[in-house]
Amino acid sequence: MLLHIxxxxxxxxxxxxxxRLERAAWADGRITAGHQSARAKHNEQLxxxxxxxxxxxxxxxxxxxxxxxxxxxxxxxxxxxxLFNRYAGxxxxxxxxxxxxxxxxxxxxxxxVRTDLSATLFLSAPEEYDGGELVIEDSYGEHGVKLPAxxxxxxxxxxxxxxxxxxxxxxVASFFWIQSFVRSETQRRxxxxxxxxxxxxxxxxxxxxxxxxxxxxxxxxxxxxxxV
Length: 228
Ligand code: NI
Hints:
A hairpin with a 6-residue loop joins strand 8 and strand 9. The protein is 31% helix and 32% strand. Helix 4 packs antiparallel against helix 5 (210-225). The strands form four sheets. Strands 1, 2, 4, 5, 6, 10, 14 and 17 form an eight-stranded antiparallel β-sheet that branches. It has a five-stranded antiparallel β-sheet with strand order 3-7-15-12-13, with no helix packed on it. The protein has a two-stranded antiparallel ribbon with strand order 8-9. The chain has five helices and 17 strands. Bound molecules: nickel (II) ion.
């Protein structure tokens, strides 16, 4: 499931990030790439240890924490601290699958994060650059994703994906990974669809007694399927 989540950051928050990132100390993006993907990766990235990355990453995490659709779609257990990248001047990232496990070292001891989901939060508006689509391959084919600034795409960590060359302007984004309470993509999708249907039904028939039963089913499935 590809999930487009709108307005994760407000226009003001996007402008703040962009302004801070203009003077950032960008480094070669291969610093976080695995052995195989390093060969395909051509972009710039803020080192994880850069205080600016940590500050803006905290802003992104705080915004995610307030976003109900992100919670419902990802059921996040752990979120890898958001990173920031930039593509310009023909830079691209060829087809690859992200590493299955990443180690979050921000709190001293290395904390493993299984990358059940990958996320890209767009910080450049689509009209600012040409190319730069995030192309995600799933069993239905290839999907090109290029979203408004402040919007996010969530996609399964198992997907092959690439970033098309940026042929004009610059594409700035934040990206990160999520370990979900629910490891299975199928189960996560089922819970998300049930959650949405319950919310829609609540708006239509707020007094329906069946809502209590359906909400119970949701939580009982989540209890059955989650690992903590
Ligand atoms: Ni990737």
